[in-house]
Amino acid sequence: MSGSCRRSRAPTPPAWGPPSGKAFIPPRTSNCLRRPVVGSRAGRPDRSVYDDQPNAHKKFMEKLDACIRNHDKEIEKMCNFHHQGFVDAITELLKVRTDAEKLKVQVTDTNRRLQDAGKEVIVQTDNIIRCRIQQRNITTVVEKLQLCLPVLEMYSKLKEQMSAKRYYSALKTMEQLENVYFPRVSQYRFCQLMIENLPKLREDIKEISMSDLKDFLESIRKHSDKIGETAMKQAQQQKTFSVALPKQNNVKFGKKMYINDRIPEERNEIELKHAFEEEDENEEEVLTVQDLVDFSPVYRCLHIYSVLGDEETFENYYRKQRKKQARLVLQPQSNMHETVDGYRRYFTQIVGFFVVEDHILHVTQGLVTRAYTDELWNMALSKIIAVLRAHSSYCTDPDLVLELKNLIVIFADTLQGYGFPVNRLFDLLFEIRDQYNETLLKKWAGVFRDIFEEDNYSPIPVVNEEEYKIVISKFPFQDPDLEKQSFPKKFPMSQSVPRIYTQVKEFIYASLKFSESLHRSSTEIDDMLRKSTNLLLTRTLNSCLLNLIRKPHIGLTELVQIIINTTHLEQACKYLEDFITNITNISQETVHTTRLYGLSTFKDARHAAEGEIYTKLNQKIDEFVQLADYDWTMSEPDGRASGYLMDLINFLRSIFQVFTHLPGKVAQTACMSACQHLSTSLMQMLLDSELKQISMGAVQQFNLDVIQCELFASSEPVPGFQGDTLQLAFIDLRQLLDLFMVWDWSTYLADYGQPASKYLRVNPNTALTLLEKVKDTSKKNNIFAQFRKNDRDKQKLIETVMKQLRSLVNGMSHHT
User: Fold this and answer.
1) How far is CA 812 from CA 188, 800, 805, 806, in A?
2) Where is the Exocyst complex subunit EXOC6/Sec15 C-terminal domain positioned along the sequence (predicted)?
3) CB contact set of 510 (below 8 Å; sequence gap of 6+)
């Protein structure tokens, strides 16, 4: 009894629905799971079940059992309350039995008295029979005399029916005249005239009926919009009602999501509430196709042609006209793709057309057949798919594409409810889904560009706990060291990182919207979301990052921050995977789908940023080197390093301090690349073909600059180098300058090619080029050198060394 008392009344199904014969099955709810009255703590399920508290589930189940017991007690009280009424009713019924027995006795007595009184009536009846026999004989004589009167009356009735436009009754009257009345008076002339006039009356009826049919066809063509709109609306309401309660239960008892992720079920709950309210408002105004269209003309016409034996002509004409109307309905407007209303009108007209055909199929016999409607639908479906494929390709607004998808789903569900196959429409939706993703990617490309343009590329400062929690709520950042620091403090990433992470989740939500109502499993939807997210990361975001990195106004500090940002975005990819898993309700153990490619995306962007850092750093070094203004003919050095070089070294020190937040290998590589590029630039300055002469004083001055470079390298501007690794970037310059400063040509020539040579890194061609420049300067500065023996000996030594160097260079070229 407790189970029956708790059973709720099933809701009345909508009057509009497909004639499939399927019963409307209302969703069952449990009173124990209903939301209790506000203020009743005893019956309220504790919301701690949603929190990650110990024994939360157990406590929830205990409170739920208590709620159930309370309801059972109330039910038992209700049954006990009505038990006495049931006993009283049985008692009253027993009293009625006694009265019924008395009534039976009275009826028996009344019947006996009635039989006694009827004996006299029987006598009178025999007399009446004799009189009736006499009357029948008189009637027979009258019938013979007035044989023609019924024929005239029926013919008069036929004329009245024709005047009253009761054509079906008139045809039946004609049949009666031909089959019953005319044979009786066929020998009379007036009967022959009537017989000759009947075919003309039948033709008139056919013409009038056909005219009514044309008016009917025109009427349903005009009302197709309203019929389709009503059918689609009621199909949507029925679908919403059938899926709303399971979704609501999933909202209440579904898996809890990651704390930093927005819970989409809250939005769904609001949408379901609106859906229920809308359905309650429209429930009283349920219309059927008969309410919108008067089908009586087609019924009459069909019956008339059936009676006339010309049913095939009527069927052919009807089908031919409806096919023409179908072609008109399937022809879209040229600007249909511009607004969702254009698509809606197109769908409602088609739905209205086929709802009428389905109604005709089920209420008439033979006018249209299932084979005919299937053929018509297949033709229409091919045309619909071609039209949607063509017009949807013009859509560039993802919101419009999403609304189109929703219309197609409602359109397909409506017609599927009437027995029309719609699998090809859902296949088309997968094509449109790809286009939808493309429009989303284009939209989010603009979003990412705006984020990068608005970013200041500096760490996010926070001055209190509230600001810190705001950042944490937007981006899953975890750093125990940062948490221990006192305020104010800074996050390592810039403002663009939490904004990009939020926008990626918004993209996933937008992509999920299209996957709803596609009759796909959660695993398939999960795979769709991962693939579209991969496209967003690998193509859109990656392209935006690369374009940002290559922009001329992005400096070294910005590039360093971009590398830091990509590192944190890469670490957040696992949270995005968990986010997708949560919103699709797929457990981690059963996921065998595509993983996110964020790791490779952000690594590629980071490598590009690193390469851009190396390039811009080298460009900056070139700008400083271009400021060099050596006096290549000076006799004595200045005694201090050049100003441009000291400025360059100070710049490098400040830049490498910014690199402290970069991964160690990136900073070391940048430092080594800068030193190597500086060494190469200085070497090219010495060997410049436009520089013809270099004095030893200039060499000594140049040596002072190289010494500063070596001191900079030995100061370990970036930690992590082992020994004198960084100083080796200047080893070529050092050995070349030492060779000229010491003038140790004998050692160089004697040890050339030996692994242990003191001047192993000095190329003979490089030494020869520099020596020729030094020789020309010696000749110019010593006009009378030929008259001094020491100078003559030095010139001879230079000539000898140059010959030997040329031989070494030639030997290298021949060996090569």
Assistant:
1) 140, 19, 11, 10
2) 425-773
3) 398, 402, 440
Rounded distance between C-alpha atoms, residue 511 and residue 796, angstroms: 84
Angle, CA of 691, 645 and 458, to the nearest 5°: 130
pLDDT in tens, 419-477: 899 888 888 888 888 888 999 999 999 999 999 999 999 999 999 999 999 999 999 98
Reported as a single tens digit per residue, the pLDDT across 504-526 is: 999 999 988 888 777 778 888 88
For the chain, how many helices (H) and strands (E)?
28, 2
pLDDT at 691 > cutoff 70: yes
647-678 residue pLDDT tens: 999 999 998 888 877 776 888 888 999 999 99
| Cα-only R_g, the chain | 50
Question: What per-residue string of b and e applies to 34-47 under the rule 16 or more CB within 10 Å gives b?
Answer: eeeeeeeeebebee
Quick one: three-class SS letters along 48-101?
Answer: HHHCCCCCHHHHHHHHHHHHHHHHHHHHHHHHHHHHHHHHHHHHHHHHHHHHHH
Tokens of 277: 């309210």
Q: What is the DSSP letter of 456?
A: -
Query: 628-785: what fold?
Result: Methane Monooxygenase Hydroxylase; Chain G, domain 1 (1.20.58)
Rounded Cα–Cα distance for residues 630 and 577 (Å): 60
Contact of 727 with 707, CB cutoff 8 Å: no
CA angle 661, 667, 671 (to 5 degrees): 140
Whether a cis peptide bond, with omega within 30° of 0, leads into 332 is: no
Could you count the other beta carbons within 10 Å of the beta carbon of residue 320?
10
Distance CA(215)–CA(301), nearest Å, equals 12
| Residue in 321, 112, 307, 372 with CA at minimum distance from that of residue 213 | 321
Of 605, 620, 615, 503, nearest to 563 by C-alpha is 605
Please report, for the chain, the start and end positions of each structural domain, with discontinuous segments joined by +: 233-241+290-437, 438-590, 628-785
At a CB cut-off of 8 Å and minimum separation 6, what does 526 contact?
A: 580, 581, 584, 586, 591, 593
Question: What tokens does 556 get?
Answer: 């070294």
CA distance 251 to 263: 10
| pLDDT tens track for 781-804 | 554 444 456 667 777 888 888 889
Give the number of other CB atoms < 10 A from CB of residue 597: 19
Question: How many residues would you count in the chain?
Answer: 816
Q: Kindly report the pTM of this predicted structure.
A: 0.63
**Rounded to whole angstroms, how far apart are CA atoms 12 and 9?**
9
Distance CA 673, CA 549 (A): 19
Residues paired with 461 in a beta bridge: 490
Each residue's pLDDT tens digit, 5-26: 343 344 444 433 444 444 333 4
* DSSP state, residue 256: P
Greatest mean pLDDT range, 139-153, 200-214, 721-735: 721-735
SS3 490: strand
- 83-90 long-range contacts, CB within 8 A, separation 24+: none
CATH fold of the domain at 438-590: Tetracycline Repressor; domain 2 (1.10.357)
Listed in sequence order, the DSSP H helices in 456-538 are 465-474, 480-484, 496-515, 522-535
DSSP state at residue 44? P
Provide, for the chain, the percentages of residues in helix, strand and coil under a 3-state DSSP scheme, each rounded to the nearest 5.
75, 0, 25
Amino acid at 612: E
- In the chain, the N- to C-terminal Cα span, in Å, equals 106
CA 335 to chain CA mean position, Å: 25
Nearest-10 crossing angle of helices 167-176, 296-307: 20
Residues 624 and 645: their CA atoms lie apart, in Å, by 7
205 vs 300: CA distance, rounded Å = 11
